[in-house]
Every structure is written in structure tokens, then in C-alpha cells.
Design brief:
This protein has 298 residues and is α/β, with parallel strands linked by helices. 37% of the residues lie in helices and 16% in strands. The protein has a single domain, classed as Ureohydrolase domain (Arginase, Chain A, 3-Layer(aba) Sandwich). The chain contains eleven helices and eight strands. The protein has an eight-stranded parallel β-sheet with strand order 2-1-3-8-7-4-5-6, with helices on both faces. It catalyses: L-arginine + H2O = urea + L-ornithine.
Length: 298
Amino acid sequence: MKKITVVGAPMWLGQSVFGTQLAPAVIRSAGLIQSLQLRHTDVIDSGDLEFKSEENYCSVDDIRCKIKNLNPVWEGVELLASRVSEIVAEGRFPLILGGDHSIAIGSLAGVAKHYRNLGVIWYDAHADSNTMATSPSGNVQGMPLAASLGAGQSELVKVGGYRNKIKAEHVVLIGVRDIDAGEQEFIERNQIKQFTSEDVFRIGIHNVIEEAVSYLATQCDGIHLSFDLDVLDPSDAPGVGTPVAGGISLKENIEAMNLLAKHNIITSAEFVEVNPLVDRDGKTVKAAIALIEALLTN
């Protein structure tokens, strides 16, 4: 039985659509904590961290303005890194509820310092591997993987007081299907292993997960799951920040989480990009809870 600590990271400033900061509270109110307590005797809900919620405007001649809301996002992920590190140091499983995907910079900074070779399964429609130089939008939600690998703006790269939280050979992308040109070059240059949504359809989610587990298990002493709900097809998860058609079904993703639970190799996890304000009938919130339940069945 895992000892689980739930922490909310109510961030929306890493992108441009208001609402993802509401997700932790809404997911809780839909019954997540009670559901987890039925499966695990030791579940602590440590509440939400206090993040800034106002957009940060700066002078147009400041080069850092190319990254939107850099200061409040940086402050937030530093706070998250500290809290997550405390949870891991206590021998507990951090379950982080986002928030937009920029929070992964803090999650990984907090987790990685406790492992020699942390692996990452990055479940997402996007590669999140942009830097200030390549990002079309300037949104930090598109930069967390690159920053955690040591590329990009110094504030984001050095969160937690150190660089290079993870290694490119310890990352597996699953479900990607909307990749910017700069991201594609980054992935190819760093030889990051990836399974596109087309790969999932072609060889099946079971084979994708088995190959990802086999690839990481022999190299890594811990594996963090970073799960962006936009990896799902919008028909199953309409309430996300940046929906992309042609995604993986909820049924297949639940199968994937069940397989990861069976292998018992995930040592920390975050679920991000649920936006209750654009959801329909709580469909995406319910999907997030179903996925978390499947991952944490043992």
C-alpha cells in the first residue's frame, strides 16, 4: 500500500486560458480523496499551495517578456518543488493536482533530487519541449520538459537550486501529436523516445506501456508520471486547455494506468490541464479521477 500525499498546484499563468487553477478543488469535490481512502489506508490531503493568480505584465523591451508571466510561474514552481521534496523525504508518494503543465517544472525539481536516475513518462498531446527561442506562444506550459532537461530560461532551468533534473535517455513521450518545429528538433537532437498517438493506434496501448516500462525500468531508480489530460481525445476530455483531435480514448488510457499499477514502478505522479470552466458535465474531471484510481489501485 502506498502512503499518498495529495497536493494541489492551482496554476493557470503558464498558459492563457483562465480556469486550470480551479481543477484541484473541483477534482476533490468530485470525490477523489474519498475514493483514494477506500483503496489506501494512508492518504493525506495537504491542500492547495498558494500561487499568484494575476497576470504579470512587464516592459516590452524586457527580453524576458517573451515568456509570459515568468515571475509568478517561477515563484509557484519553486514553492511546489519545496513541498514535493518534503513529501518524498517523508517516504510518501506525491500526487500533484494541476494546474497547467508548467507545474511539472516544480514537480520534477522536487522529486529528482531524491533519485540518481529519475525516469519520466510524459503523457501528453504536446511535447512541451520549447524554450524562449522556439516557443510560438511564450507560454511556460510548453516548456517544462525542456527546462527539466536543462534547456531554456535560467530561472526555470534552476528551479530547486540545481540544473538537469532528468536525462533525455530517461524520458518517454506517449500520445504526442501536436509538436512544434523547434520541439521536433529538440526531440531528435536529444534522441528522446516517443510514441505518437498514431503509434498507440498501430501497436496498441498495451505494447506501448510494456515497451516504455522495459526501456525505463533497467535504467531508472524511480519513475515520475506527468499526465496531461489533453492526451485524451476531446470527445472523452473536452475540458482541457489545449485540446487536440485524434487523441487516445479514456478506455485505453485507463488500461495504461492499470498496467503501470501492475508493474508498480511509478513513484510520483501529477495530473494536469483540467479546466472545469470549459468542461462539459464534469466529463474531464471524472476522467481524471478514473485515471488516478486506475494508477493507484495497489
